[in-house]
Amino acid sequence: MSAGDSWYVAAMVTQIIPLFPLQSALFIGGRLSLQIFEPRYLDMVKRCMREETGFGVVLIRQGRDARIDSQDPPPEIFDVGTYARIIDFNPLENGLLGIIAEGERTFVVHTTREQRDHLMMADVSWRDAEPEARMADRHAELVEVLKQLLDHPMIARLGLTVDYDDARQVGWRLAELLPIEAEIKQSLLQMNSPFERLSELDRLVSKLRS
Known about the structure:
This protein is α+β, with helices and mostly antiparallel strands and 210 residues long. The protein has 6 helices and 7 strands.
């Protein structure tokens, strides 16, 4: 078995995981609804469910994941992503497979390679968990903004739960739900300080309102 075809090979620093490059970033505790139809991702999902493992969600920097020609190069990706596990799945009326995946932890991509079916594999290392932090009064307005977003029917159906006293959770949910560019979301994902993220979100919310 070649290195590109093996899954979850533990090393002292890195681990091999499959990647799902997307046009959006996923945060810890966030939920992603996907319609799966490509054979490489159907196989990946089946294997994840059988082996109770997950996959890495990474934002595309340039290019696209879908290939028109087999010779098309793989997309360029950002090197910080989120490991996700499938928490629900169901066949859809359009014949596709619908899944919901939840973000679990973040990682750094060191190297990537493609399998024969074009599934991208990566050597990753896990990032340190963000320090716990309670919400500060100066960011109280952000909690109200988040509550309004979570009340939207399209978002409510994802079943997200938030501890509004947890600065990490408030920041993660706002970062993924606000109507901001994907690359800005990525910069928020890459931060490892809850209060740094909240301060930037304060600025972004003020900008959106103006």
